[in-house]
Amino acid sequence: MPIDARGLSCPRPVLLAKDALDRIEEGEVQILVDGEVAVGNLTRLAGSLGLGFEVERKEGYYEVRIRKGGEAKRPQAESEGRKGILLVVATDTLGKDEDLGKILMKAFLETMLLYGPPDTIFLMNAGVRLSTTHDEMVGILKDIESMGAKILSCGTCLKFYGLEDKLQVGQVGGMNVLVDGAKNFEKMVFIG
User: Fold this and answer.
1) Which of 20, 66, 81, 99 has the maximum number of C-beta atoms within 10 A of its C-beta?
2) pLDDT of residue 65
3) Residues 6 or more apart from 109 whose CB is under 8 A from it?
4) What span, in angstroms and rounded, lies between the C-alpha atoms of 125 and 128?
5) In Å, how far are 6, 98, 113 from 159, measured between CA atoms?
6) CB neighbours of 153 closer than 8 A, spacing ≥ 6?
7) Which structural domain, as residue segments, surrounds residue 43?
8) Which residues pair with 123 in a beta bridge?
9) Domain containing 136 — which CATH number?
């Protein structure tokens, strides 16, 4: 019986899938979701647990199947070793003065281009504006991404600010990025 997580917001589909996986030694868990954000969150969960998965697009929703045990193939990229740094940015300015804060944020991101970016940047809360509506910042983030950094913007935050269709750089992520950060990254740095 599949888990029907359609219409549930982040992180509920991931929590339901993780709970179902914890209750079985071997087998498959099927989760029905209605958006690509949830699909991405579920596939990252599977990858972080070293489990195989398949995604099938249906009429108006997605079916994600996560396999545990048996012949399940372990995705390599997401599950091998600890990663370096996860940078969590929860604001689009640095400091209390908004005008100065925008200048400082731009300088911070540009300096990252000189010193090298972290492995992953997770934009949440007002930080999602950096990947959507701040065109100048989007350009800098694209340069950072081209240097190998993974850039993720919180899906719940994008929805809250009405920016779901305005993402210009990176991918949509969920709260599982923070959990993965605590478990699989050597260091987490928070701004905002």
Assistant:
1) 66
2) 94
3) 130, 137, 140, 141, 144
4) 6
5) 16, 23, 29
6) 122, 123, 124, 127, 128, 131, 132, 167, 170, 171, 172, 173
7) 3-76
8) 89, 153
9) 3.40.1260.10
Q: Which two tokens stand for residue 56?
A: 């099938």
In this prediction, the residues of the chain whose per-residue pLDDT falls under 50 are 72-80
Q: What pLDDT score does 37 carry?
A: 77
| Contact of 72 with 52, CB cutoff 8 Å | yes
Owner of token pair 């899938």: 17
Phi, psi for residue 152 in degrees, rounded to 5? -125, 140
List CB contacts of 22: < 8 A, sequence separation 6 or more.
none
- Identify whether residues 71 and 102 lie together within a single domain: no
CA distance 122 to 88: 5
